[in-house]
Each structure stands twice: as structure tokens, then as C-alpha cells.
Amino acid sequence: ESSLKVTGVDFLKSQNTRQHHTDGYNIKNLVVRRGQPFQVQVSLNRELTAADKLSLRFGIGENPVKNRGSLLSLKPERENFNGWKISVIKKNGKECLLSVTSSPNAPVGKYNLNVKAGTNTYKPENGVIYLLFNPWCEDDVVYMADEAQKKEYVLNDTGYIYVGSSYSIYDRPWNYGQFEELILDACMFLLDKSKLSLSDRRDPANVSRAMSALVNANDDNGVLLGNWSGNYISGTSPMDWIGSVTILQQYYKTKKPVRYGQCWVFAGVLNTVMRCLGVPSRCVSTFEAAHDTEENLRVDVYLNEKGEKLNSLTFDSVWNFHVWNDVWMKRGDLPEGFNGWQTIDSTPQEQSQGRFQCGPCPVKAVREGDVYLPYDSKFVYAEVNADRVYWVVKKVNGKDKYFKVGTETQSIGKNISTKAVGQNRREDITREYKYPEGSKEERKSMERAYSFIRPSGMVPRSGYASISALSGNTQTVVPKEPVTKAGLQLEITNTEPLLPGNPLEMAITVKASTPGNWTVVLTGSCQLQYYTGKVQANLGTIKETIQLEGTSEMQIPLKIAPDAYMKTLSSVEDDVLILVTAIAEVKETNDKLTKETSMRFEYPPITVQMPETATLYNDFTCAFIFKNMLNVTLENCKLVVEGLGIFKMTTFDQGDIMPGRIMKSEITCTPTRLGEKKIVAKLISNQIKGISTEKAITIT
After folding, report:
1. Shortest CA distance to 377 belongs to which of 360, 397, 392?
2. In whole angstroms, how far apart are CA 636 and each of 269, 568, 651, 657, 688?
3. Angle formed by the axes of helices 204-214 and 263-277, to 10°?
4. Does residue 325 lie within any of the structural domains?
């Protein structure tokens, strides 16, 4: 008989990708998930006989070899090879239908497929197969049982990232776009760049740790360059991004870091990468997150005598919010009980094992206080559990002296938030990270954590502080919230909406809950600060002495004129928050109490007008309308819009929008994909950085 030759290979793409939940990927090649069968139809030059030898060869990496496991030669009669299986489903004349099941712990990446028939080798067109993690396969360590969760954490290509402050949380729509053109290739490029060994590529813990390092550019020419300087002239301001797609596409095309990112951009991009590779992933925002540089579970805040926070002395900081990611997996490298969500963080803050990478750290280890477990669990624990200690710096005989004016044990790591499964709302997941404040379990967990982290005694940690002034005891004590003898409480609120161009009207409420007459000296200050806690401008202070009798309260107004802050607001490139700090000193008892609250400005909305449904490849019009309801002209307005599967990210220059004026922009949209799609819009001006909105449309 003539020698056997392969004349064609059909990857049965539409059937395979539907079964593997990979039909969304915008790529010519076949994309499948590990541990699950897919079918391949092989066409031959003649019928197959019993004597014929046919094998499929899957190779991964530069020079695949059999003994290293990078070359798999699968023969239908030999069941198993490295956990892979192949079988003949049916022979029909010259056609042969094969089923291939990869191992549920196969290395993820790109495999080259060749078909060997007798002595002839056939290389199919588009013969590179992409193999991903499989949350639908019970034997894969990323297996996730709940269907709705998989739909959210693996397949949803849009979402929200929560920002602002714990006083005023708001959602920022974000397009993850893990199925868009070139995104999967960008992720494969990162996998190759990570230099992970083949066996390391089997384990999502190694892969997610490597990706947390590669999404920042710090030591490996990764995806994004971080910049918190306020000067973004040589790139894109972090505020201007509305999704990961443009960033990853640009990176893949240029192979150079994209400028610039801040924490929510890093988290948005890392979320895209992990979902793209098939690992369930969510963006997690923590409000009042401690960035503690010495693992001593304490953040020191320094105030001057007017109650204004000082940048210069502060080594560690509390960020109004910080965003990282949780990825879902079983941890075979850890003792029982630490499977499930694992924290990873690609914002470059601290080096871990010599690189800017963080995690995966089991969320359960943070909750239980098991901070000895890999990776970086002490760091993550401190971010959500540190104490905040306030010091007032006073000049005494020409020397700076530090006076402790308050300790807060419950103000760090609040309102830990992520997008709810299948709904456009915020879900509070604080309980997954910590037990209720003051509960028995919380005490136990803290004592456990403190046995692994040895905090220093109560000494201010500024480089200039004279230690001798305060001889703190250095034994490890789990601090408790201090209670003043007057039962004093402070509350900071805004009494009018905080609109740019209007006076900022706020109030500090002082409450006493113990019988007696109390003289309280109240110092209050108002500042503008970045979300990283860095102060940008001092706006004003008040100092008043008030009398409280027994159980009573008094509200002291704090009002800032527009002139005091508008210039700063227009000159900064970031979204800034209004920080109010209050110090109360009770004359009779010498008790001191400190409280701070960060608030965000409120903005008029953008309205999106478009039909609720549209049909594939048929144009529709989408209009963006914005009315400037503020008392101030918005200068250099830019409207940034993007709709996945509808149109690429587009920027419209709108010039200046005067008070009362209405802006309207229209874009013609051509839907190229079915299902529910979202259009995201963001308006940026000199005065305002963060007005965004989104609207859904169903494509039939």
C-alpha cells in the first residue's frame, strides 16, 4: 500500500471552544482548557489499517524533548502519556476523529501540534494550540464549583474597581477585556518572559506570583510603570485609563513598559491576565490600607500643632484605598485549610525575594493570623490590621518633641470590597479577611499574628525622633482602643455636597458620654491629599474651646472658600481627596483624642443614550451627554470611551465647558460580538479627574 500521509487537520474550533468556554477569545488558533477532552479530525490519503502508525505530537517551548516532558507523543493505542490521553472516536473512510484529553495539571502555554503518520510528519496551519487553566475541571487545582462565580471571575470581561475613601466609596467601571485581540498572546509572552520552568507552569501559585511581578515594570521590564509623582507628561495619567486592553496591546506590540499606572491600574491589568489564563480572579479594594515599611503593625502619623498632617516625617502611610487581586486555587504547598482565595498584588511597594512581587497569600491565613505562611502574608496582614498612632510635633526649647495624641486600633483595613457575583453592586468581603472587631476570634487571631511579628514598643519611628524622650515598654501587647474619661467621641461629616467651585462645608461633632463638666480644646484642619495619604495642600484650620455638660454634643463648623483650593485642584493630575483631621484635648483629665476622615468631591453625571438592543454588524448611534452643573469652568475636557466588541478606546477633545453648558458627543457603533456588552465613558478635565459611567446593550 502507498505510505500513509496526512492531508489535513480540522481543529473543530467552534465545537471545542463552546465546550471549553473559550469561544470568546479573539484569535485564529484553538484555545482549550486542561483536563478536558477536545476533538481533532485528521484527513488521510487512504483508509487507516491495523498496521498503520499514527501519533499526535504536542511540543511546548523552544526545543521540545520527550524526556523533559516538553514533547508529548500521543498514540491512540497507548492510553496514557504524562497524564494525557488520546482515543479514536470514529473512522470514516479516510477521515479519523480523535479525542485528546490533556492532563489536569499540564503546564499552561502554547503547544505546537504535528501529526505523524508512518514516517511522514504533517504540520497543520494554525497548528499552535493554547492550553489554559480549567476552573470547570474537578481535578484542576483552580476548580470552582459554582457556575455563577465562574461566569463572574473567569468569563466576565467588564467590572468595577472600588475607590474613594471609606467615608465615600464609589465604583470605577473597568474593562478587563481578556478576550480581545492580542491579549492572550500578551499573556503568553509574559509567561515566556517569566522564565518559569515547565513544572512551575503547572501550578497557578507559581504563575500568579510571576504575573504579580511582571505586571509592574520595576525589575523585569514588565507591563506598567508606576508613577505617583503627579507629573505624567511623558505618558498617560493613571486616571485616564478605563481598561486593560490598550495597555496590554501596547505592551505586546512595543515590548516596553507602558506609562503610567497606580494601584487600581495594576490590579485591573493583573485581573485581566489571570482571567485570561483561566484562573478565577477578582479585584479587591481595601479602604484605609496600611503601607507599613517595617512589619511592626503600626503606622505613625505626625501632626503639627494646628492638627495638619506632615508629609516630611511620615515613613509609612495609610492609603485611602489600595487595590489588589484575589485568585482562586487549592494550595498543595501549604497545610490543610488554606485553599480558596489567595491575595496577589502587582503594585510595586516592597520587594519579596528580591523582586517587586506579592503573593499568593491565603486570605484565610490573614484571617487566622497564620502570617508565617508563604507568600508575603505578614505584609498583607499589616495592610489590613495595623494600628494608627497619632503624634503631635511641638517645639520645646527649640527642639522637636513628640506627644502621643491618640491610637486607633480599628481604623485600618475597612470596607474590603469587590464586585458582587452577577450583579453591578459592591460586595463587602471584610469578614473573609478578618473576624469582627473586638470578637473573641479576632483577639485570638491577633495574638497568633503578634507571635510571628514582633512589634517594637511605643516609640515614634521618625528618623528625627529622639527616642529618649519616651521610654516605651517593649513587651508585645495587643493594643486596645483607648477610652477617654469623658467618654469623648469625634465625628467628621460634610454638611453640604462637596462640589468643586463651591465652599467646602464640613463639621466636627464632639460628643461626651460621661456625667461632668468638660472643657474641650478642639483643633481641626482641612487638607487636600492624594489617595496614597500624601498631603498636597493645607486649606485651613480652626481652634476652639468648648464646654460640654454631661451627655451632650456640639457641632463645630469648618468652612473652606473655593479660592483656598481651586488652584490646587486645577494644577494636580490626580483625583484628590479632602482630609479633615481633628484633635480634642480634655482640660480636666488631660485626655487626648484624634480622628481623621477623607471625603471625595461630588461630580455631575455623564448620561449615555443608546438603544437597549442592537443586532450583530448593524450600526447604531451612541450619544454621551454631560451638563456642567458646577460653578466653575471645566478646562481641557477629554471624553474617553470604549466598548468591548463594539469599538476601540477613543478620545474626544471637548475644550472648555462653561458652567451650565451641555456637551454632547456621538459615536457610530458596529457590534462584532453577541451577548451583553458594555460601553464605558470617562470625562477628564483640569479640575476634575474622575467622572465615569457605563451602560449595557444586548447584541442579538
Report:
1. 360
2. 27, 16, 12, 8, 10
3. 140
4. yes
21 is catalytic: no
Whether residues 352 and 414 share a domain: the answer is yes
* CA–CA distance, 502 with 496 (Å, rounded to integer): 10
Q: Which of 187, 291, 322, 591 is catalytic?
A: 322
User: 412 near 387, Cβ under 8 Å?
Assistant: yes
Identified catalytic residue from 203, 220, 292, 345: 345
pLDDT value at residue 311: 86
Residue 1 lies in a domain: no
User: Which residue, of 600, 622, 645, is where some domain finishes?
Assistant: 600
Please choose, from the candidates 19, 56, 64, 57, the residue with its C-alpha nearest in 3D space to the C-alpha of residue 38: 19
User: Residue 61 sits in which domain range?
Assistant: 6-132
**Alpha-helix runs per DSSP H in 22-177:** 147-150
d(CA 60, CA 70): 5
Are β-strands 258-261 and 224-226 bridged in parallel, bridged antiparallel, or unpaired? Answer: parallel
Low-confidence ranges of the chain (pLDDT < 70): 1, 67, 79, 292-295, 314-315, 454-483
Tell me if the bond preceding 530 is cis, omega within 30° of 0. Answer: no
Q: Does 387 carry a binding-site annotation?
A: yes
Q: What is the structure's pLDDT at 642? A: 97
Same domain, 581 and 619: no
Q: For the stretch 392-410, what's the b/e string if a residue is b when 16 or more beta carbons lie within 10 angstroms of its beta carbon?
A: bbeeeeeebbbbbbbbbbe
Pair 109, 220 in one domain: no
Q: Is residue 326 flagged as an active site residue?
A: no
Is position 442 within any domain?
yes
Total tally of structural domains belonging to the chain: 4
Specify the pLDDT at position 455: 55
Contacts for 642 with CB less than 8 Å, ≥ 6 apart: 175, 242, 243, 245, 246, 648, 649, 650, 679, 680
Query: What is the separation of C-alpha 508 from the centre of its chain, rounded to a whole number of angstroms?
Result: 33
100 and 162 in a single domain? The answer is: no
Confirm whether residue 385 is marked as ligand binding. Answer: yes
Question: Is the distance from CB of 296 to CB of 449 less than 8 angstroms?
Answer: no
Q: Is 585 annotated as a binding residue?
A: no
Q: Both 280 and 154 in a single domain?
A: yes
Cα of 90 vs its chain's centroid, Å = 48
Residue in 96, 137, 187, 263 annotated catalytic? 263
The answer to the question of residue 467 being in a domain is no
| Residue 62 annotated as binding site | no
Query: Of the candidates 67, 99, 132, which is a domain's last residue?
Result: 132
CATH number of the domain where residue 164 is located: 3.90.260.10
> Catalytic: 345?
yes
Alpha-carbon span 218 to 631, nearest angstrom: 42
Q: Both 323 and 421 in a single domain?
A: yes
Assigned C-alpha cell, 76: 491512540
For the stretch 138-176, pLDDT in tens is: 999 999 999 999 999 999 999 999 999 999 999 999 999
Residues 217 and 366 in one domain: yes
- The cell for 656 is 472648555
CATH number of the domain encompassing residue 579: 2.60.40.10
Query: Does residue 654 sit in the same domain as residue 640?
Result: yes
pTM higher than 0.85: yes
Distance CA 122, CA 120 (A): 7
